[in-house]
Specification:
The protein has three helices and no strands. It is mainly α. The protein starts with 5 loop residues before the first helix and ends in a 51-residue tail after the last helix. Helix 2 runs parallel beside helix 3. The relative contact order is 0.03. The chain is rod-shaped, with a radius of gyration of 51 Å.
Length: about 190
């Protein structure tokens, strides 16, 4: 059997159901009326114009392809490649966004820790100043009550002198006399 166009078969079947015959030879593959053929040509022309318009629009959307004449296959291939590149860039941007969000969260945590450390530093500084003021006030109120060895040997910048306990001093050196390793060291005035 000779191949027939599927549109002509559909129209022939519709016409047969309606009981009409629009061709002198109903077995002919081109059994359409001139009006039906003109309508089909108009619809096909409109479809091709619309497809050309869509392909031109797609070609314009593909970078580095403006103004060049490409086949439909080239346009579709390049568009597919471009879409894949966009999807890959989107994934990379999403990953970078997640990393940036994590860095911002880490930075916020560091800022909070820094603020906490500053507050603790301020509190310790205030405690230290209060302690110095108390020590200086006590020294002014009781200058005779302080032992003579309490004064610092050299002045320091705004620091209170530290007390020295004379009962806890190192034993004298032996000045060249070698003591036995079993000889003990005695502190204070305890029994010999």
């Amino acid at each position: 059997m000779a191949e027939t166009h599927h549109h002509s078969l559909q129209h022939r079947q519709v016409n047969q159901v309606a009981g009409e015959s629009d061709s002198p030879d109903p077995t002919s593959p081109y059994s359409r009326t001139p009006a039906l053929r003109a309508s089909h040509k108009m619809a096909e022309r409109k479809r091709r114009t619309e497809m050309k318009y869509l392909f031109d629009g797609l070609r314009a959307q593909i970078p580095a392809n403006h103004g060049s004449k490409s086949s439909k296959w080239e346009i579709l291939s390049k568009a597919s490649e471009y879409i894949k590149n966009l999807e890959e860039n989107c994934k990379e941007n999403s990953q970078a966004q997640r990393q940036l969000t994590q860095v911002v969260q880490d930075l916020d945590a560091i800022k909070r820790e820094n603020d906490s450390l500053r507050a603790e530093n301020q509190r310790l500084f205030q405690e230290m100043n209060a302690y110095r003021e108390t020590r200086q006030a006590n020294m002014v109120q009781h200058p005779q009550g302080m032992p003579h060895h309490y004064a610092p040997s050299h002045p320091t910048h705004a620091s209170a002198p530290l007390p020295v306990d004379l009962n806890r001093s190192l034993p004298p050196l032996n000045n060249g006399v070698h003591a036995s390793s079993m000889q003990g060291v005695q502190y204070g005035d305890g029994p010999h």
